[in-house]
Design brief:
The protein is of the alpha+beta class. 43% of the residues lie in helices and 20% in strands. The protein has a single domain (9-112, 119-207), classed as Aminopeptidase (3-Layer(aba) Sandwich).
């Protein structure tokens, strides 16, 4: 029997921006929202690395990125405490220039996520979790989650995310996330908000 070693996790720095952008582009190229956002695969493959580079730039400024040292997986987290996060400078125009004729759907997606986000409830927000296609179904995503959840449990902090389909909903449910009512983006697929209660809410105060 082969025993897989657990990946080592580190905090990403600006030096990792391109690597993680390319990872996210590959991981989400055939994701649950991909065909709706950009129906044409060649256009999607061209736009996605630049689009996700914006997310990485924002996360390096306002959040934190956990990544495996082999760059096979990464998770973007943000602390939320009462108000939305600030945008990058000139973000609307940069998004428009980058996504071109597909911009209305990207904009609608981000607006819907913003409109449904529980900003009034302090939590850590999992914006994106990506695992390279070659490393999926090997427990790497769960390892990344456990790494962050241990920190959140130590400070009695809840977590929140939007799942995009049955597969990642099952992953997050196994990690203690509870479902909230789904919402749709225009004519696109539904998004499934999920929240992981803090240890105090769960009654696990001995873990703090």
């Amino acid at each position: 029997m082969t025993i897989r070693s657990q990946p080592t996790i580190r905090t990403a720095t600006p030096a990792h921006q391109q690597t993680i952008s390319e990872l996210l582009a590959e991981a989400f190229l055939h994701g649950d929202l991909a065909d709706w956002l950009i129906p044409h695969l060649d256009a999607r493959a061209r736009i996605y690395p630049h689009y996700f580079a914006l997310h990485i730039e924002h996360a390096l400024t306002h959040g934190q990125i956990d990544m495996t040292t082999d760059a096979a997986a990464a998770a973007i987290w943000y602390p939320i405490d009462g108000e939305p996060l600030p945008d990058l400078a000139n973000y609307p125009q940069r998004l428009t220039d980058m996504t071109g004729r597909f911009h209305p759907r990207f904009s609608a997606l981000e607006q819907a996520i913003h409109d449904h986000h529980p900003y009034d409830q302090p939590h850590c927000y999992l914006a994106l979790l990506a695992v390279h296609p070659d490393q999926q179904r090997r427990g790497v995503g769960s390892t990344l989650l456990r790494h962050r959840h241990d920190q959140l449990d130590a400070t009695a902090t809840a977590a929140y995310l939007e799942a995009t389909g049955p597969r990642n909903r099952r992953l997050y449910a196994r990690s203690g996330y509870q479902p909230h009512p789904a919402f749709h983006v225009l004519d696109g697929p539904p998004l499934y908000p999920m929240r992981r209660p803090s240890v105090r809410e769960r009654g696990d105060s001995h873990r703090c």
